[in-house]
What we know:
By secondary structure, the chain is an alpha+beta fold.
Amino acid sequence: MSCDDRIELLREIYAAWGRGDYSRGGFLHPDFELVFAPGFLDEGAFKGSAAAWRGWKDWLDQWETWHYEPVRYMELADGRIAVFIDMHGVSRTTGVKLPGEGANVWEFDDGLIRRLVLYAHREDMLRDLGLGSS
């Protein structure tokens, strides 16, 4: 799968998720792992698609509204794709608005997504990737 194919798949995923459609999962590797990176309000890792979806649902359930928009896709030297995200949410319990500039790192294996790391702050992702700021 080429970089362009991986980015197109991610565009489709973000578009579906942006509409609240989380029904597609055929793009996930059987050993898929969802990771909330340190600095995220939730932290930890969920292995397997069922556990990952539960972890993601638990995150979403905390928000009255939660929107995000990918603003930049960046291919990494090892084939992973980093995506810079603008986020906006309103807490269900406190009503506090959370604007932010986060990021995601997507790892592929045989055309399927093996791992997704969610970052609340772009600078955390850049630091973890050894890229400084951009």
